[in-house]
Amino acid sequence: MDKESLVAVFAKKSTRRDTTNNAYAARLLSLSKKYNKYKEEEEPYTDFTFLHNLEDVIHFITKVPNGRKDKNGEFKLPTPSTQIGHINPIIEYMIATDEHILADNYKKYKNIIDDQIENIYQKTNGVTDIQKENIISYEDLVKYMETVDSEIKIMEDKQLKTHLDEWCLEDLKTLRLLLRIYILYPSRNEYSTLKFITLRDYNKLKQPEFNYVVLGQKKSYLSITNYKTSNKHSLKLTQITDKPLLKMLKTLKNARDIENRDGLFYLQKTGQQYDNQNLCSLMTKFSKKLIGKNIGSTLIYKIVIKEAGLNYNDALKNDDLTNAVKFNEILAKYAKIRGHSQQIQKKIYMES
Q1: Together in a domain, 107 and 135
Q2: What is the C-alpha separation between 348 and 127, in angstroms, rounded?
Q3: Which of 124, 157, 180 is the last residue of a domain?
Q4: How far apart are CA 122 and CA 243, in angstroms?
Q5: Whose CA is closest to 296, among 191, 147, 168?
Q6: Is the pTM of this model over 0.70?
Q7: What per-residue confidence (pLDDT) applies to 160?
Q8: Structure confidence at residue 233 as a pLDDT band (50, 70, 90)
Q9: Which of 160, 177, 289, 328 has the fewest CB atoms nearer than 10 Å to its CB?
Q10: Per residue, what are the HEC states of the chain?
Q11: How big is the CA angle at 6 (ends 107 and 45), to the nearest 5 degrees?
């Protein structure tokens, strides 16, 4: 079965996005090739009947080391997250092909691995070893924003700027905007594909297809539609209340209107709109250069949540119900923006 045919199988679930169907198909095909090599079969698999060998497939996914060496030159076992990345498309494939009993059996293993992931996050407060090396305090995050402002001022005052200087200046301005958005409304890399739309035009949409900055005269919003599914219940709508951010966004929209473009973020070299990887690369490139840390959207979320969580815990310890309610509401808002429950937020991202 080729990728196109496999995508068609996953597409039977109409509420799932095309990007997810493509990702599932790619993962399942990759698993098929790796499993074929592992079994030392001479002929490649032409279908996915090998998935009926449940215990052997689970053993391969969980117990067979990766093909790549780590920085210490060792072949490591797949992480629980990698294991889940293989098992999810298997389950969805089984459901799509009416193999519900087999899907349920794979789910039993998935549930165990999910618990392993949660236990790991609880022990580390949701911070991996790599993130521990890069995490900074909320105060230092604010100082980093000020450093970016200073860099922009230096670049703007520079005489006889080259085109590379101009590109760097625009990238710094993009970073400044991204940092403000992520600190105020922390979420995933999905902000990379934001488009401008007026509130009037947005209200005409039957089902928002893209991620939008919705600008109105009285109210403005972040509208995120590509979180996991295209189901209307997955829409995340967050009101933008920060006046400096609104001013930055409206100034940028005026510039984009002149350019006849609606995206917020574009690559300087090609003019193409950002994708998630471009956003991640920009954020880590400058944070590494300016403060010696790799600061991306996920780490910003953890820094912001930790700060709010500390204030919430202090209020609880001091029996300060007013502030406890205040910071709990902030945490609830962040959980909604991020797209998970507050229970998961407190288990994974907050200090106990």
Answers
A1: no
A2: 9
A3: 124
A4: 36
A5: 191
A6: no
A7: 87
A8: very low
A9: 160
A10: CCHHHHHHHHCCCCCCCHHHHHHHHHHHHHHHHHHHHHCCCCCCCCCCHHHHCHHHHHHHHHHCCCCCECCCCCECCCCHHHHHHHHHHHHHHHHHCCCHHHHHHHHHHHHHHHHHHHHHHHHHCCCCHHHHHHCCCHHHHHHHHHHHHHHHHHHHHCCCCCHHHHHHHHHHHHHHHHHHHHHHCCCCHHHHHCEEEEHHHHCCCCCCCCCEEEECCCCCEEEECCCCCCCHHHCEEEECCCHHHHHHHHHHHHHHHHHCCCECCECCCCCCECCHHHHHHHHHHHHHHHHCCCCCHHHHHHHHHHHHHHHHHHHHHCCCHHHHHHHHHHHHHHHHHHCCCHHHHHHHCCCC
A11: 85
Residue 151 to residue 147: CA distance in whole angstroms: 6
What's the one-letter identity of residue 171? Answer: D
Q: Give the domain-ending residue among 124, 143, 162.
A: 124
Q: Do 200 and 94 fall into the same domain?
A: no
pLDDT higher than threshold 90 for residue 327: no
Q: What is the pLDDT of residue 187?
A: 83
- Give the whole-number percent of the chain exceeding pLDDT 90: 46
pLDDT value at residue 225: 81
Domain shared by 175 and 272, yes or no: yes
Boundaries of domain holding 78: 3-124
Mean pLDDT of 303-324: 79
